[in-house]
Amino acid sequence: MLSRKSPYEKELRRLENKEAAWLERRTAKKDPALNRFLADKIPAGLQNTLNSAFFTAFETIFSRGGGIIDKTFSPKEAQKTYEINRCAAFIRPDKKNLRAFSKNARRTSTGNTALSGAAGIGMGIFGVGLPDIPILVGFLLKTVYQIAVSFGYEYASDKERYFILLLLEGAAARGEHAITMEKTVDAFIRGETPEINPDSLKIQMRRTADALSADLLYLKFIQTIPIVGAAGGISDIVCMRETADFAEMKYRRRFYTEKERNLR
User: For the whole model, what pTM was predicted?
Assistant: First the structure.
């Protein structure tokens, strides 16, 4: 006689299916026709400029600590919500309570996506592209921070910043790079972490900046063209959604891996 799967086992299988679908989509993703059309029109040096803009944004926000972003939401309230969800899932680990963590994580990311998109589109109308990079990075980090707290993780340590940078790189990756990042993130979750120090953190900041700039290069170029640039600003919305989806999956995977004793 077949044994019935527990709600926890069902949710774990649901997560595995979602991860597989994500990876399949990202490995099959090809450059759009627009990118091919613009390939010979991108100014020399724009890629390096974009790389530097993303790296500088990470460096600035991290060097100032979490204070800048902490002022835009309440980490204490978010932690309180997590504790309530954790207690409910411990007492009654059914589908509703197990999904409460993800539901809260998605709710927090929706507003950030809308605000970031509005900023990107607004700047695009006036032909402003690169100056919106710090705004985009701020919203990306805020989104992942809120998702982290939704699953009971802090975000201010170098270890957690390293993991968050891996998530941002993974969300921007495609093709073979996406496969590599999936393995790298999952290895971190299993506890197979490299030595994390200021130097390794800076190297990962550079890798993440390069991945984001490569993914957004063409649309950020369009964003520098007045009026038409509004279409480029939509890239911020897509980037935010991809990041939120990937971060929610992997923080849920980490939560199940490290804290599953609270859910059985």
Answer: 0.83
